[in-house]
Amino acid sequence: MKQFYVNPVGKIISNEKGFFICIDEKYIPALKELNSFSHVNIIWWADKCDSEEMRNTLTTNQPYKNSPSVMGIFATRSPLRPNPVAVSTAQIIHTDCEKGIIQIAYTDAENNTPVIDLKPYTASLDRVENFTSPEWCRHWPESIEKSGDFNWEDEFNF
Questions:
Q1: Which pTM was predicted?
Q2: Which domains can be identified in the chain, with CATH numbers?
Q3: Cross-strand pairs, 120
Q4: Start and end of every TsaA-like domain (predicted)?
Q5: CA–CA dist 8, 84 (Å, integer)
Q6: CA 53 to CA 43: how far, in whole Å?
């Protein structure tokens, strides 16, 4: 099977000042015009979950309080997967195209997490108006904006 190589383009910084995507100097020109979008899709490598054992985790025991007792890893947002690739959508607060720093409202990626790509959020490609989800999670918020006020601690078993 063909091998694939992924190179980080930057990293996530989270600290008392907020959440930031710091782009490596080589990739700063790729930020041109990203600041005209309100949101960005961050594709990141869950490096703290990158081991042979974690990559071979194909099912998990009830990760959510109301979910089925066993779920396939592809039916979860878990970073434990064959390739620890994660995707988060974040609101862009400010972009410093000269320094390569994007301040974002929030991300669930940990500090110093490698970012492998950025894509602008566009409703025509990223928004699904008529989606379905399982009964056990239908009460979850339907947007990032509403998600901030939701008590996620009541949902997870981890």
A1: 0.92
A2: 10-154 (2.40.30.70)
A3: 40
A4: 6-130
A5: 13
A6: 22
- The type of residue at 128 is V
| Two structure tokens written together for 86 | 């994660």
The pair of three-digit structure tokens given for residue 119, joined into one six-digit string: 């894509």
Tokens coding 81: 């997967």
Alpha helices in the chain (DSSP H): 52-55, 123-126, 144-147
CB neighbour list of residue 81: distance below 8 Å, 6 or more residues apart: 54, 55, 57, 73, 74
Instruction: Please write the tens of the pLDDT for every residue from 49-92.
Output: 999 999 999 999 999 999 999 999 999 999 999 999 999 999 99
- State residue 135 phi and psi, 5-degree precision: -55, -40
Question: Judging by beta carbons within 10 Å of its beta carbon (0-12, 13-18, 19+), is residue 40 exposed, middle or buried?
Answer: buried
Q: The tokens of 92 are what?
A: 């862009």
| Separation CA 43–CA 29 (nearest Å) | 18
